[in-house]
Amino acid sequence: MPVREGSLEAPTRHPLDWQNPDFYNEGSLLQELERVFDICHGCRRCFSLCNSFPTLFDAIDESDTMELDGVDKRVFWDVVENCYLCDMCYMTKCPYVPPHEWNVDFPHLMLRAKAVKHQQGKSGMRDRILTSTDRVGTLAGIPVVSALVNAVNHNRAGRRVLEELLEVHPDAVLPNYHSRTLRRRVSPQRNDSAQAGPEAGPTRGKVALFATCYGNYNEPELGEDLIAVFEHNGIPVRLTDTERCCGMPKLELGDLEAVAKAKDVNIPQLVKLIDQGWDIVAPVPSCVLMFKQELPLMFPDDADVAKVRDNIFDPFEYLMLRHKHGQLKTDFKNSLGKIAYHVACHLRVQNIGMKTRDLLQLVPDTQVEAIERCSGHDGTYAVKKEFHEVSMKICKPVVNRVEKAEAAHYCSDCPMAGHQIENGLSDARAPEHPLKLLRQAYGI
Question: Residue 86's closest CA among 375, 308, 356?
Fold first, then answer.
């Protein structure tokens, strides 16, 4: 019986079997890598997505046999290291994802390989530090320390030290740290007894903000803009009582035990708020995706994880759901002109459509040009010495589109992707987050 070539069925995801001892069996892993890499070699649709696929295909084409059997197995790990789990191959390119019988889930195979490497103690000090966003943020949030860290980040001599000690590329954009974090600016209990706005579809009209590490320590104004926009629309906002990192950085490292520990702190907090009538919103797409997809796949039988999955929203997803039911204010005072809008990969993976674009286009005299290409950032990939130049190459088509658009503003739902684009622009013009633009349109 012939094998189906491709599939017209909707992709589905299998739970991540990370607690099975065989998951960490290197021999079993290498067999699966060979199976999937051979399928990829025969297809090659993903050659333009990231550097994992060119690394694999070049190695095959340069081998004696020009087939996978001629490739040194050490190259397999180079392919793994170049995958930053954007999920775009799974979501937009691969015709062999489940339910196809070939059952190709390239990102989760790369995740398994990263987990094997981490369990073997091969995660370097730099990668462990860069993915410890809570600890780094807490330390860098001390006033004297934050001033020192920011000074080092913007000083050539300081960057040379970082390059030497942590193998951080001197040209990579590193985020600033604020001693006045969002949690110091906004009380978690604010609006605790506030009357919810009217229900609208699945939204209940009051929101608990999961600030995220980046939104708390690096760009607290992101949370302030969100609060201003939501409360302008009659939606009271409070912060969660406590929070840990969502777990995405540790997931990308392959440290699944650390992901589980973060989940054990975050999920009970979020479930408590959901049971009290609060919807959950987070301003960074990767964090929302962690709760919507990755944790449910790691813990498929956990009812609390499922409850959070069903009650967490991207900010613009939430606002457009309310607009659909007549509960969004459109009293815009300022037009925005032309906007070059980068659609973040981890927002695309959520399969909610371009809600940010749709909402911004409600503003009079505003045109939004959407750019659906990866920025190549991935939180840590773009700052690493060995990957930064590759990340900027991946970002170049996005940079070209932004410059060609000659727009009044450019933005991305992912603030780190926005700064990656900034790093490639000839004029180094700073990005403006869509929430900031929406607040500007409202005149608040």
Answer: 375
